Amino acid sequence: MYSLIRQLLFLLPAELSHELTFKGLDIASQVRLLSLLVPKPRSHKVKLMGLEFDNPVGLAAGLDKNGQHIQALSELGFGFIEIGTVTPLAQSGNPKPRMFRLTDSDALINRMGFNNEGVDALVKNVQASRYQGVLGINIGKNKDTPLENAIDDYLICMEKVYELASYITINISSPNTPGLRELQSGSYLTELLDGLKAKQLELLQATGKNTPLVLKVAPDLDQDEVQSISNALLNSGLDGLIVSNTSIDKSLVTGQPHADEQGGLSGQPIFDASLAVQRQFHALLTDKIPLIAAGGIDSPDRAQQRLEGGASLVQVYTGFIYQGPGLISEIADRVATMGHRK
Fold it and tell me: What phi and psi values does residue 230 have, to the nearest 5 degrees?
């Protein structure tokens, strides 16, 4: 059924089909059809960062930026859901069109630019949700905020979502906010992580709730950058690492329609690069900081490779768009047969 639905949706511009898909999911959820139509994954609980995940297959940030569709997404079988990226103030993002399909490679290029309604709107949506599972909230900085003041944006978002989030992801690796990736290096990263960990301790003492902090990095890192980020993670005591965000390496799709579009590349072509960087981080961090794998995961085999490469959980986004909701149960069922536990 999904292959037919996808053919119809792919006749439309990518962002429009995205909006229509969510309208359909929300309606199906409201009339209690969605959970009947989607195969239920086998439960395979994973304990990580003080949280319990019903299965290790999560939704990566970016699909539901404002937390408007949490209930419908939860009925698709995800073991956890990550919403965002959200910024302190609402922003419209980059001009349209800003999302492009590369169907020859089951890939996307997007330059959305952190389009979202602002953290206060997201908070209201989460508060209105009935979802009781693990919820990650991905936070970023507004486009107009200078890098030297970036920490202020992250602190604003962190404080507002802290009690609602199961974990908080610090997004410093999107290629679509000018200069953002500079936060992955040097004093910027040290200052950011130290400041956020200090705020985490402050909020823990004030609320009695420990909300883990997770960093999300790019796949376009060399060995020195991986070493530097690993040192910063270990020194700060951050709780987790997501590898990886989208790639800026368009050589992976040279010659394909839309391959020259500006933005981040996601999907099948970035799998190898993302896995390679994940393995480098795993070698340096061992089991001191848990890893969550994202990037090009579109089959049980690829999910298994990421788990065997040191990850404890996997996230899907582009693979979910191309393969459909059945991908969730396929991966979860494979993991259950692997007996994978972290």
Answer: -60, -45
